[in-house]
Amino acid sequence: MLLLGVYWRAVTTAPRTPLYDEHVALGGRMVEFAGHDLPVQYKGVIAESTAVRQGAGMFDVSHMARIRVMGEGTLDFLQWVTTNDLGKLSDGQGQYSILPNANGGAVDDIILYRLGEREFKVVLNAANHAKDLSHLREHDRWQVKIEDYTDSTAMIAVQGPAAVDRLADLCPEPALVREAPFFSTFDSEFAGVGCFAARSGYTGEDGYELQCAAGDASRLWRALLDAGVEACGLGARDTLRVEAGLPLYGHELTDEMSPLCAGLGWVVSKDKEFLGCSAFARVRQEGVTQKLQGLRLEGKRLPMPGMQVHVDGRQVGTVSSGVFSPLLGCGIAFAFLDPSVAHETPCALEFRGAMVAGTVVNKRFYKR
Predict the structure, then answer these.
(1) 45, 105, 321, 327: which could form a disulfide with 255 (CB 3.0–4.6 Å)?
(2) Are residues 144 and 72 in the same domain?
(3) pLDDT score for 9
(4) Are 356 and 302 in contact (CB under 8 A)?
């Protein structure tokens, strides 16, 4: 698959998650991603993507960094180093946000969960683990405690229209699993394993992300398999997130570019002060110089990052992510385009000297 050459490369010595042996036992094709040895697929990207869209699938996301921020000034500190307004949260609620830099770029995109005014859990991208911790400590004038508990835990994302029912069957509090609002959290047991459960995910489907002790991860994984949840790899995860219009750091978000170009103005508060807020205000006033859009191709060609997008014979932008969509039966992509290019505009991408036709569309290809 060409996809592997862009996002991942096969390795034998990368760090392993607590579920490595489970992946190997299931025949997972192991590759390096974000510095970890992870499965890119088991039965195949199409089969696994379909399992999540039609039933329930699960992903080992233990490589993602997990930290706890604690102390008297925790809320004030996190309000300063994130773009979204944490003042909107009550205990047990989560929020998607950006870690900004002073120039208005994105250090990372993250999820924060409020346990209390003096304690939050935060999930960071694996590739930015060390960078994010350094950034947070650099801007900590409140002297909070930042505890990195990544290595002592595992995280499994269970996603799909049947995910909640599968998890409810494994929990002594099934009503809690079924009734919890999106982006809310609670502590409970699943198959006898204690978990921090967050109703969230990266596929566009309903589901949960479960954090548990590293030593309990295999027991939970096997219980989910026995409950009919399909093991899925990174290939399906990438396909599903593009279909759902969700960005990937390093492709749709970078240190140098404003997240407003990626359409993330909804997570950038206009009502609070935060690191780099003046730079964000300036971009809002002047307008973005490029805008993230969706592309839907004619046929099954796989669009690749870096491909140029043409409209009426002129280059108008560049592909940032591309996949073959099993749901739509064609190639789809994200691309940063000239802001003047509207939806439903015919476009073309060059594949080895041949131009392949497509259409500029809303970047959210799928909505459940």
Answers:
(1) 105
(2) yes
(3) 47
(4) no
Assess whether 140 and 156 both reside in one domain: no
The amino acid at 256: E
Which contiguous run of DSSP H or E holds residue 284?
A: helix 277-286
Are residues 184 and 234 both part of a single domain? yes
Burial class of 345 by CB neighbour count within 10 A (0 to 12, 13 to 18, 19+): middle
Which stretches in the chain have pLDDT values below 50?
A: 1-9, 11
Closest CA to 295 of 309, 284, 305: 309
Task: Find all residues with CB under 8 Å of 91, minimum gap 6, and list them.
Answer: 114, 115, 116
The count of residues in the chain is 368
C-alpha dihedral sign at 63, 365, 106, 73: negative
Instruction: Encode burial over 217-252: b for 16+ CB neighbours within 10 A, e otherwise.
Output: bbebbebbeebebbbbbbbbbbbbbbbbbbbbbbbb
44 & 177 share domain: yes
Residue in this structure with the two tokens 């809320």, named with its chain if needed:
75
Alpha-carbon gap, residue 240 to 365, rounded angstroms: 10
CB of 155 closer than 8 Å to CB of 210: yes
What single-letter DSSP state applies at residue 93? B
Q: What is the pLDDT of residue 295?
A: 98
User: Within a 10 A sphere around the Cβ of 107, how many other Cβ atoms?
Assistant: 25
pLDDT of residue 12: 52
CA atoms within 13 A on the CB side of 122: 30
Which amino acid is it at 246? Answer: L
Q: How many domains does the chain have?
A: 3
Does residue 47 contact residue 53 with C-beta atoms inside 8 Å? no
CA-nearest of 299, 244, 236 to 50 is 236
- For residue 99, what are the domain limits? 65-148
Q: Which of 82, 76, 78 is nearest to 107 (CA)?
A: 82
Residue 14 has a pLDDT of 82
Measured CA to CA, the distance from residue 322 to residue 235 in angstroms comes to: 12
203 and 76 part of one domain: no
283-286 LR contacts (CB < 8 Å, sep 24+): 283/104, 283/258, 284/260
